Amino acid sequence: MVNKMSTRREIEIIACHWPYTSEHHEKSPPARPSNYPTFRPLQRLLTFTGKDKEASSFSLTMASQYLLARSSTLQAQTPVSPAGAQAAQIPLQTFHLPVFPPEAFTSNLSALILTSDINLSEYTSLLTQPFSIPSLPPTITNLTLELFSLGYPPGFLTALGTKLPNLKIVTLYSQLFAGTTPATREDALGFVRGQGGLIEVHLLDVFAPSGFFTDLTAAFSPSLRFLEINYTYRHSDPGFLGALRASEIVEGLVGVMGLVGLTLSLSAPDVSLDDEDDGEGREVGVKVIGGSDARDLVGKVILGGDELVMIDVTMFELDITDVEMVLDGCEKIKILGVSVGLENGWEDVVNVLGKKERRVEVLEIVGVPGEGLVEKWKGKRKVGLSKEVLEGLRNNWKGLKSVKVSILRTNVEHWVKDGDTWERKG
Hints:
Elements: E1 38-40, H1 53-58, H2 63-76, E2 87-92, E3 111-116, H3 120-126, E4 142-146, H4 156-163, E5 169-176, H5 182-193, E6 200-207, H6 212-219, E7 226-232, H7 246-252, E8 261-267, H8 291-304, E9 310-318, H9 320-329, E10 335-342, H10 346-353, E11 362-369, H11 371-377, H12 387-390, E12 402-407, E13 410-418, E14 421-424
Parallel strand pairs: 2-3, 3-4, 4-5, 5-6, 6-7, 7-8, 8-9, 9-10, 10-11, 11-12
Antiparallel strand pairs: 1-2, 12-13, 13-14
Helix pairs in contact: 4-5, 5-6, 6-7, 7-8, 8-9
C-alpha cells in the first residue's frame, strides 16, 4: 500500500561514498561501500531542556514541519568526520548495516537515520535472507526509519532495538512497519516493547494490518509523552480513510495515558505542477473521519488527557460541543488543532469557543462545511476569518497568539496577534 518512491519529495536519500576526509590520512582512505554512514553536524531534532521541555518540541510536532525541518537541515550540512558528528544517515540497499568507525563511539552521535534505497524488484527476496547489525554507538537516542515500503526481515527490528537500548525518540516514515506476516508483526511489537525509555513517537504514513495499532499502543512504555500519527491524504485511493484503522487508533489511546502531546492528523498532498511522477493529479485538500470514531475520540481524550498541553486531532470531524468538552476536560491545553463542522460559517464557532476562559495560545481550525454553506460560498473569493470575528476570542482567550483556519486544508489563512491587533500573515 505504501510506495517507496516519492510520497514526500522533501525527503531525499543521501548516499555518499566519501562521507569525510580525515586529515590524519596521508593518502586518500580506501573506497567506502555505498551504504557507509554519512555523518553530519545535526542538532537533535527535538531537544528537551529543563522545565520547558514540553513546549520546546511543539514547534516540530506537526508531521510536515518535522519532516521539512529534518530534511532541510540535513541537506544544508556538509558531511563531517565521525568524531564531530551528531547524526548519521545510512541508505540501505540490503539489510546489512555497515560497521561504524571507532570515532563514532567517542563522539556525541545522537541520531541515526536508516533510509531504504532497496530496489523494489529485490525487496521481497531480501526479506527472507540473513541480515547483519553491528555494534552501534550507545549515545544514539533518536532513530528514524524511512521508506521501508515492504517492512523488514523477521527479527531485524528486535535486533536493531537491542543494539540501541537508549532510544528516546523514534520516527517511522512511509512504510509497512509490521510487515506482512505474523513473524514480522511480532518483531515490530518486540522492538517497541524493548524500548522502555521512549518519550516521543512519530508514525508518518505508516500502514499496518488489522489489529496492529491496538497492540502497538499497548506496547508503548509508560514513559511516552508525545505521540504523533499522521497521513498524507491520497485522493487516488477511494478506500484511503478506511485503511487508516481509525477505530483502532482511537481505542488504543486508552493504553497511552499521561501524554503531554497528541497529534492525529491528515496532511494535504503536495500538488506540484512540475511533478511528472505525481499520481495524485491536481486534487487538493483532505477529507476527514466523522461518525462514531470521532465521538469515541472525544471520550478517550477526556478520560486520559489530564496532562495534555498540545493536541491536534484534525484527522477527525468534531462538532463545536465536542471541542468544548475536550477543553473542559483537558484544562492545560495551550496548542489546539481541531476539524469542526461548519453550518453557518466561522462566526458561530468562534462565538461558542469564546464563551469560557481558556489557556490556548495557538489554535488551528480545519473547517468542514455543510452542503448549505458550500452553496452559500460558491463563487466567493474569501471564505475565511476577519478581525471582527477574531475579536470574539479577546475577552476569554487572553493568551491567544496565533490562529490558522482552512477549508479542509484549502484556502488557508494564518492570523498572528501583534500587540493588541490581529494581522493576517498568509
